[in-house]
Amino acid sequence: MNQNRMDARLVDENKRKKVLALDFGEIGLDKSDPEIRLPYMDNEYVIGQYDFDGDKVDELIIAVKSDHETDCGVCLNIWRIDDMKQWILSAPGILGDPTCEFVLNKIKVPRNLRGFYYEWTFQNGTFEDTGNY
């Protein structure tokens, strides 16, 4: 913990250290105190990797999942490690257990409500919103 934020620390194969500031998007933080917004105690964190841009180098993904009674959803923190470009994709307001599907250059998060879903497609060097809300 870094006072009122949480960071991840990356050490690569050459022993270089990088700090990855986690962003919680619209989910996962206790917003009751306007000055201090700490992560919920019951958040879950998942670390993964996936090659969205097809350059044969995986991007790093740290997902923050919240099942909090007032704040259910997932926030994806994605880093391209070579230049430390970061994307934050937030999917709040999910009914039930949030899940993410990665297929080719797409990320899909079902909302579990009448077939609606969050979706982002990696194209033109960024993630573009292609969801159906």
Molecular structure report:
This protein is mostly beta strands and 133 residues long. 0% of the residues lie in helices and 48% in strands. The protein is built from no helices and ten strands. The chain has strands at residues 7-11, 17-21, 44-50, 59-68, 71-80, 85-92, 101-103, 106-110, 117-123, 126-129. The strands form three sheets. Strands 3-4-5-6 form a four-stranded antiparallel beta sheet, with no helix packed on it. Strands 7-8-9-10 form a four-stranded antiparallel beta sheet, with no helix packed on it. A two-stranded antiparallel sheet has the order 1-2.
In short:
0% of the residues lie in helices and 48% in strands. The chain has strands at residues 7-11, 17-21, 44-50, 59-68, 71-80, 85-92, 101-103, 106-110, 117-123, 126-129.
Arithmetic mean of pLDDT? 88
Spatial gap, N to C terminus: 34 Å
Question: Which shape, going by the Cα principal axes?
Answer: flat
Strand order of the largest sheet: 3-4-5-6
What is the strand and helix layout of this fold?
Layout (H helix, E strand, L loop, with lengths): L6 E5 L5 E5 L22 E7 L8 E10 L2 E10 L4 E8 L8 E3 L2 E5 L6 E7 L2 E4 L4
Antiparallel strand pairs: 1-2, 3-4, 4-5, 5-6, 7-8, 8-9, 9-10
Write a concise keyword list for the protein shown above.
mainly beta, 133 residues, single chain
